Amino acid sequence: MLIEGTTVELLSGAEMVVRALRDEGVKYIYGYPGGSLLHVYDALFQQEDVQHVLVRHEQAATHMADAYARATGKAGVALVTSGPGATNAVTGIATAFMDSIPMVVITGQVMSHLIGEDAFQETDMLGISRPVVKHNFSVQRPEDIPSIVRKAFHIAESGRPGPVVIDVPKDMTTPTERYPYEYPKQVKMRSYTPITRGHTGQIKKATDLLLNAKRPVIYTGGGVIMGDASTELTELSRLLNFPVTNTLMGLGGFPGTDRQFIGMLGMHGSYEANMAMHHADLILAVGARFDDRVTNACDKFCPTAKVVHIDIDPASISKTIQADIPIVGPAKVVLEEMIQLVKGSKKQPDADALHAWWQQIDEWRQRHGGRFRTDDSELMKPQQVIEMLSKVTNGDAFVTSDVGQHQMFAAQYYKFNKPNRWINSGGLGTMGFGLPAAMGVKMNFPDDDVACVTGEGSIQMNIQELSTCNQYDLPVKILCLNNQSLGMVRQWQDMNYESRHSQSYMKSLPDFVKLVESYGHVGMKVDKYSDLEGAMREAFALKDRLVFMDIAVDPFEHVYPMQVPRGSMRDMWLSKTERT
Amino acid sequence: MRHIISVLMENEPGALSRVVGLFSQRNYNIESLTVAPTEDATLSRLTVTTIGNDRVVEQITKQLNKLIDVVKVVDLSEGEHIEREVMMIKLKASGQMRAEIKRTCDIFRGQIIDVTPTTYTVQLVGASDKLDAFISALGSASILEVVRSGVCGIARGEKVLSL
Fold first, then answer.
1. Which of A192, A253, A290, B9 has the fewest CB atoms nearer than 10 Å to its CB?
2. Among residues A226, A277, A488, A562, which one is catalytic?
3. For residue A566, is it within any domain?
4. Per residue in B134-146, pLDDT tens?
């Protein structure tokens, strides 16, 4: 319906929600209907631009949207009803928040006049979500919907990204009440102006330090991935010939097979990465936040290093580790400026010092290369499974993971050469993330290989989504590293609680093969390493089928290296018996 | 160290809860908190007094700045500033105490704003330590009720906190 004599359309609130998503370029939304959203679902039904994907649990909807964002850099969208729908989404929202992932979550709400009256399926979603969102909105007038949606996407995707919730009371979507619809092209918010470049003086000072460094390390995190800065990072690192280490969130920001890559750092970081950090005289931190899983004890952190810290969020700088040169700005723009400065400088990186530094790093690399031992038994090591995955997919697949030992093995042994391909819940550590994340990626990258590395514990936290995979033909490959126990919990119990395995043993596991078959998928059981490669190749050759590989792995394996609690970066367990 | 942080924010529903939520979520301390609209009805001015070392206070101002509803943040304690707090205090005032309380009140330049045969209600304006001093000068025996507004503050000189 048009306003007479104009091209301005009259739309109901429900139609505006859907139209605004279309105008934002959204193709898929992930959700689950319910009472407060029935008008919106009816509007969805009557158009074809925005396609809705019906999950089996709202948490999965948020993870699908989140994974889409991690793979593309654009905000994913979830749609959930009020009350339990909204609370079920909270874990997914918090997951995105901790990893700074752009996402817009639209939650239904009871009618405005019922808010505060403990109405059926009422929950204070603004209050509940507040600590885990970048911002949230409540729709008070239907005509505000277009501008709120535009603002939500702007806030979610700009600056340090994050999830934004829009709470929509049912009466804001009444189909019979129509308002003029115009989607705003621009957003102007006096209280929100993300930084677009770094301070040139600071960048110059930092570049001087880089060119004088004798034992430098470039340490980068998720900010390089979400900030689309991996090309610039790679160029600068090669220009300087500095070693690069990535955080768990930063893997793929620098090519994993490059000689200059020294592995992940931190609690389960590589020996050479942690040693190099400890002995460095300069750390260039880019889009990383010196989180406790990286630094170990802050007072013992990298005693001889000066710290240059580039981050889009000023609050991340000098939060746990004092920066000597703070640079607030987008990683991509700041790194580009550094590249130009390095190229234009008369001074060259100190080649002699770097040569000696690389010798030292290579020596560390050799001293503790392979990291895991295979024994004569047929029992597979989980690391072997990941190495095989890397081989079978040529390091090109999207790999999602759940949380625990398998996540660390995937991070350590899969060689990510491209950004946005490693999709895991780093900050919140959300078990149940892996399968819906793989689905969200596969839906948007149907021609790519998508593997979900999981364990028999994590997969059961969202296993109902096998049904969604059936409905939408999502042929992801699930690699379940089955050690019949909550491996990471068990590892800590082995190391700190004299192997008292309190509640970390999984009794009465389902027969996964039969289970996935009942959902219409293909199941495989692999018990021997000698069968692994053939089975995995067969699984990936089945392009249009979801394949669940139930892979029996050594239940006694631990993840190493592992930093010693309250120690410095270099204090590590290297195996069950060796310590640095 | 005690800091007085002034925040200019959108006068929107939920804005205050974001600020208060931030303090509890990040384990920052709130000594006092006041908030009211400004001459521009779309803006509120919030003043919070907090205690923390430099690192904590730096984090507080940075985290406040990140809130979407927050327009500007300033740590008044970084420069010359004026702070004021209003206290209303209801006191037992009978017999010879009546004159004594009146005298103390005059010394502190308080005003008696309500009177009954047995009570005085006194209004006192000043920096928080002056209000504290008044309370301790009276002694707890005569105090019936105390209400304090919390601190508000403004920078000295020509510096202003505005859009």
1. A192
2. A488
3. no
4. 999 998 889 999 9
